[in-house]
Prior knowledge:
With 382 residues, the protein is α/β, with parallel strands linked by helices. The chain has helices spanning 3-11, 38-50, 79-84, 99-106, 140-151, 160-163, 169-175, 186-194, 270-284, 304-313, 322-326, 336-342, 348-355, and strands at residues 15-19, 31-35, 58-63, 74-76, 92-96, 118-122, 128-133, 154-156, 178-180, 199-202, 216-217, 236-239, 250-255, 258-264, 291-297, 316-320, 360-367, 371-377. The chain has three domains: 31-158, Rossmann fold; 169-255, Udp-n-acetylmuramoylalanyl-d-glutamate--2,6- Diaminopimelate Ligase, Chain: A, domain 1, CATH 3.40.1390; 256-381, CobE/GbiG C-terminal domain (Nucleotidyltransferase, domain 5).
Amino acid sequence: MNPQMSKKSIDDPQITQIHADLKKKDEKQGIAIWALTPGGAALTGRITAGLADVQTPIQVFLSGRVDSGSLPAVSFERLSEALKDRFHQFSGHIFVMAAGVVVRAIAPLILDKTRDPAVVVVDEAGRHVVSLLSGHIGGANRLAIQTAEAIGADPVITTATDVNRLPAIDDLAIQHGLSIENPQAIKGVHMALLHGEKAACHDPFELISGKISGWIRHDPEVFRPANGNPENASPGIFVSDEAKPLPPNVLILRPKSLVAGIGCNRNTPMAEIEAHLREVFKRFGYAPSSLALLATADVKADEEGLLELAEHLNLAIEFYDKRRLNAVDGVPNPSPTVEKHVGVKSVCEAAAILASKGGQLIVPKQVSRNVTLAIARRSFIS
């Protein structure tokens, strides 16, 4: 347990948002720029200067045979060896060299489109900047355009939706903070658009439908459990925090719309709290991947099980004092016992309502042996 986390939460008079871990162990570190020759190194300097306004760290890697001059750089001997431990450490890579060299170097390291970093290739003359890998989700298309603008080159974008001036649903999802639950369904949606078809879309809160209104249609049948061969089901886009059985061709996008208010007995282990949380989400039909925030009373600021759960789920947790919890109107299930021992009428319901910033309580207090939990939907989506 991190003692600084506990102390910070206690010192704040009203509310403290604590990120379970300031930096996840696997968090990406920014952009890496790679070059093999003196010409590549010179262009790397121009790229670094041109990207100075991009709000991300930049690390330069140069072949050991190249004099870096005044350019701060890490030296390497073999590109393939240098990339082994670094490829997935960075959110993006810019290679100033031939595309073939890059393809051979990164091929063994590629995982999938949801986890691979952006890969951009620049020719040594600085004429073309090619988005090579993870154009949408990884952001390579955007990075290629930014790099091209920085050095006055032409960006080369080859993703089919972009060259055909169609919406890239995965890119749109990332821009609007939606998590992609089943990325394997992206291809079916994009292929439908490329063939001139409109994709069925369920987006009750209109999070992205307004951006793609010309390419979608209303067809509730697409979102019913598939009868017969599910592979023959029409592609669709389902944007919701509700968990429903859907055909595999339906792309599921999850907004970070839900907050969980939690109360627990002292020293309740993390596993027990998490088990109750997941059981409640499943029973009421909500997606855990839409959970954005945990909330509780400030007397729980040093509750190890709660802090460990926040760290485990990579979520922030907010702590509210008695005054704010007691000021919440319309709590459906106040507890005389909790008021007697903690000094508040409600912990989980009141905390959920507060954390939702004026949203709606959609699951009232659910009680297990040691845990209480309520779910609210944030106001921006209610």
